[in-house]
Amino acid sequence: QAYFASVCSKFSNRPRQVWKELDKALGRKAQSRVRQLETSQGTVEDPEMICKTLSAHFSALSTGSGQVSDSTQNPWSLSSGICDTIFKFEPFEEEQVLGALRKLNIYKATGPDRISASLLKTLYTVISPSVTKLFNSFITSGQTPTEWKEANVIPIPKVTIAKLPSDYRPVSIIP
């Protein structure tokens, strides 16, 4: 109890570090990857095939059709046939961008772009004019960078002993 109290006190504003220290003390190790999957074709152990199998499974979940969704559609207008409302972004003011950069949580994971929240938060006064212009150009043109449509997808087990692709939940780390 004393150790737990000291860890909680030492890292009171950093819950991730608290859990890391407690896991270390309890001898728990985080599983870094999926080691094997059961599929209709048998057991898959090759890391690349596991990745492809999970990717296909998660893609089927996101579209409901088993096909990867078409990311070339105009991302700014939505029409479902049920409601003909047009979704429209308004340009950002620099103060809004300053506020958002200032509030970034530096303990969040870095996305595929590898730009840390800590770096953005440190430089927010310097980069906010450029970031504002950049975001507004995306809104004006109706196009987003291809890189913003990518994510690091981490398979998280839903059950204690995960064997099937459906035993995993996709968690996306986006830029």
Main features:
4 strands, alpha+beta, 41% helix, 175 residues
Q: Tell me the strand percentage band.
A: 5-15%
- Arithmetic mean pLDDT: 79
Sheet of most strands: 2 strands, antiparallel
Nearest-angstrom radius of gyration?
Answer: 21 Å
Strand order of the largest sheet: 1-2
Q: Name the helix and strand elements from N-terminus to C-terminus, one letter apiece.
A: HHEEHHHHEE
The number of helical runs is 6
| Helix/strand structural class | alpha+beta
In percent, how helical is the residue content?
A: 40-55%
Shape: flat
Detail the poorly predicted runs.
Answer: 64-79
Distance between the first and last residues' Cα:
39 Å
Strands, count: 4
What does this 3D model show about the protein?
With 175 residues, the protein is an alpha+beta fold. Helices cover 41% and strands 10% of the residues. It is built from 6 helices and 4 strands, in the order ααββααααββ. The chain has helices at residues 2-10, 15-26, 47-63, 94-102, 117-122, 124-141, and strands at residues 37-39, 42-44, 152-157, 168-173. The strands form 2 sheets. The chain has a two-stranded antiparallel ribbon with strand order 1-2. Strands 3-4 form a two-stranded antiparallel sheet. Strand 1 and strand 2 form a beta hairpin. Helix 1 runs antiparallel to helix 2 and helix 4 (94-102) packs across helix 6 (124-141). The longest helix has 18 residues, at 124-141. The radius of gyration is 21 Å and the shape is flat. Mean pLDDT is 79; it is low at 64-79.
Topology:
Blueprint: H1 2-10, H2 15-26, E1 37-39, E2 42-44, H3 47-63, H4 94-102, H5 117-122, H6 124-141, E3 152-157, E4 168-173
Antiparallel strand pairs: 1-2, 3-4
